[in-house]
Design goal:
With about 200 residues, this protein is of the alpha/beta class. The chain has one domain: Rossmann fold (3-Layer(aba) Sandwich). Strands 1, 2, 3, 4, 5 and 6 form a six-stranded parallel β-sheet that branches. Helix 1 packs across helix 6. The longest helix has 16 residues. It is globular. The protein starts with 10 loop residues before the first strand and ends in a 15-residue tail after the last helix. The protein binds flavin mononucleotide (FMN). The site of flavin mononucleotide has 15 residues, from helix 1.
Length: about 200
């Protein structure tokens, strides 16, 4: 008898690119997952004219899914402003943190990003940038911990300006594979992480 396969986690992709029409990487990657039946793609950029989100709607979307993806291009060693604004407004006290803020507890956070710089520019011994990607992602790691989410191993594409179509297609395939898993592999927790 065939055993039913483990269902994939209901997944919400928060797509945060301020100019998706000019994107090569983010656009190609999201295209690779948007037809998956358990995946909801929710574009939040460009921001609305007043920069405000419908917080109740955004929070309901989060509640309706088990795995949340933040997909964004890497801007100034951080997230684009539209994603920062979304985090500031949506992850409120009493919802995401605080004594009664447990709405996201136990859900998985998957970061998906791309950098213009090559992988070598994110090495600890690189004299210019000096920091590894894991170190630079520490604020998001801390955010995930505060709101009780399990941080999955981030999916990062380096060298966005020069990546070949073939390598980009392979990366897109990897993204699709990850989102098809019941849940992605999470980072080890405990003293010493992130490294
Ligand atoms: C405003 C801005 C800031 C950026 N900052 C960085 C950065 O700090 N480090 C880096 O490696 N690339 C940086 N980049 C390059 C982007 O990460 C890269 O163009 C992007 O990942 C490509 O994805 P896309 O084709 O979806 O736009 C920056 C690009 C822009 C426009």
């Amino acid at each position: 008898m065939n055993r039913p396969s483990t269902p994939s986690a209901r997944t919400l992709v928060i797509l945060a690119h301020p100019d998706l029409a000019s994107s090569r990487i983010t656009a190609r990657l999201v295209e690779a997952v948007s037809d998956l039946p358990h995946v909801t793609v929710h574009e939040i950029g460009p921001a609305s004219p007043d920069g405000g989100f419908n917080v109740a709607r955004e929070q309901q979307l989060l509640c309706d899914h088990d795995r949340i993806v933040w997909q964004f291009p890497w801007y100034w060693y951080s997230v684009p402003a539209v994603l920062k604004a979304w985090i500031d407004q949506v992850l409120t006290h009493g919802f995401a943190y605080g004594s009664t803020g447990s709405a996201l507890h136990g859900k998985t956070l998957q970061l998906v990003t791309s950098t213009g710089g090559p992988e070598s520019s994110y090495a600890a011994d690189n004299p210019t940038s000096r920091f590894t990607m894991a170190q630079l992602l520490a604020p998001l790691d801390a955010t995930a911990r505060l709101i009780g989410m399990r941080l999955a191993e981030p999916l990062v594409l380096h060298g966005a300006r020069t990546v070949s179509d073939e390598d980009l297609a392979a990366h897109a395939k990897r993204y699709r594979y990850l989102l098809n898993l019941p849940d992605g592999p999470t980072r080890p927790t405990g003293p010493g992480t992130p490294t």
